[in-house]
Write a structure and sequence with these properties.
By secondary structure, the protein is of the alpha/beta class. The protein has twelve helices and nine strands. Helix 9 links the parallel strand 8 and strand 9. The N terminus is likely disordered.
C-alpha cells in the first residue's frame, strides 16, 4: 500500500471497497483489528490514469489511433495484435487480453483451472506478463497446444501491453484481491471491455453490464472459482456474438469513463479541506 498518515486520518491510494476488505481477517493480515477501530477515519482514493500515456487517440505504440467518435482504428489495432502474436482466428472471433503478473493474487490459480474450458470456446487470447514458474509453464504448455488461438509473451513489455489494450475486445482480470488495479481503467478508455472479479478496485470501477437497460461498463463475477470465471466469460461472449448494438453501447459506456488524476485529486482536496475544518 502507498499509505500516508495525516493527523488521525489514514489515507490509502486504493479503492473504498478495498478499505472495507482489509478490515477482514482474510485480507487484514493481522492489522484488521486496528483498521476496524479506525474505520471511520479510513479513506480509499483510487489511483488516477495518465491519459497522456494511456489514450487511444494519441498512443504511440498502437497501429492506428482512434477515439470514441471514430472507433474504426480499433479494428486495425486488433489485426496488428493478431500479427504480433501470429494468431489465426477469424474476424468474428472475440480476442481476450491478459496483462498481469502471473501470481495467485491475480487469480491465476482459478484461471489455470479454467483455461482448458476457455480454450474449447471460439475465442483468441493474447497474454503478456511474468511471475510464478508454475503459471508461466501452464501458459507455455497451452500455447504449444493451441498455437493459433493463444499467444504468449513471458516478459514485462510496455509496448505489448499497449497493443493488447488497444487490440483486444476484452481484458480478463480474475484477481483474488486488488487494492486498486490500473489495467481495467486503461482498457475502458480503449473500448476494451473488462471481465473482472468483484473485489477491491475492480469492484469499485466496473459496473456489470445490464442488457435490459444498457447500463454498465464491463462484466464482473463474485465467487472466486473457475466456474464463476467461465460463466462470466460466456456472458460477455454472448453479448459480443449476438448483439452488436449492445456491444457498441457497452464500448461507448466504457470509453466515456473518467479515471483521470484530476478526478482523484479532487477527492484528496475534499479530504484535506475536511481535515482543516475538523
Amino acid at each position: 500500500l502507498k499509505a500516508g498518515i495525516v493527523f488521525s486520518e489514514i489515507v490509502t491510494t486504493v479503492s473504498e471497497r478495498y478499505c472495507q476488505e482489509i478490515q477482514t481477517e482474510e485480507l487484514g493480515y493481522g492489522l484488521e483489528g486496528v483498521l476496524q477501530v479506525k474505520k471511520d477515519n479510513l479513506f480509499g482514493i483510487l489511483n488516477g490514469v495518465d491519459y497522456d500515456e494511456w489514450n487511444p487517440e494519441k498512443d504511440r505504440f498502437i497501429a492506428e489511433n482512434y477515439g470514441e467518435r471514430i472507433i474504426s482504428g480499433k479494428a486495425r489495432c486488433r489485426k496488428d495484435l493478431l500479427q504480433e502474436y501470429d494468431l489465426k482466428i477469424s474476424d468474428k472471433t472475440p480476442l481476450i487480453g491478459i496483462i498481469s503478473r502471473f501470481v495467485d493474487q491475480k487469480g491465476f490459480d482459478i484461471l489455470s483451472d479454467a483455461m482448458e474450458e476457455l480454450m474449447s470456446m471460439d475465442i483468441g487470447m493474447a497474454a503478456v506478463g511474468s511471475g510464478e514458474r508454475k503459471y508461466s509453464d501452464m501458459f507455455l504448455d497451452l500455447a504449444r497446444k493451441y498455437p493459433e488461438k493463444l499467444g504468449l509473451k513471458i516478459a514485462f513489455d510496455n509496448r505489448i501491453a499497449h497493443k493488447i489494450t488497444a487490440g483486444s475486445d476484452m481484458i480478463l482480470m480474475p484477481s483474488l484481491y486488488e487494492p486498486c488495479g490500473m489495467t481495467q481503467m486503461y482498457s475502458l478508455k480503449y473500448g476494451t471491455i473488462p471481465i473482472v472479479r468483484a473485489t477491491g478496485g475492480l469492484d469499485d470501477t466496473i459496473q456489470n453490464f445490464d442488457i435490459k437497460t444498457g447500463s454498465g461498463n464491463g462484466f464482473k463475477f463474485i465467487d472466486y472459482s473457475p466456474a464463476s470465471l467461465v460463466e462470466k466469460v460466456k456472458e460477455a461472449l454472448a453479448v459480443f456474438n449476438n448483439n452488436k448494438y449492445l456491444w457498441n453501447k457497452l464500448m461507448h459506456n466504457a470509453m466515456e469513463e473518467d479515471f483521470s488524476w484530476e478526478r482523484s485529486a479532487k477527492r484528496y482536496v475534499e479530504l484535506y479541506e475536511r481535515l482543516c475544518r475538523s
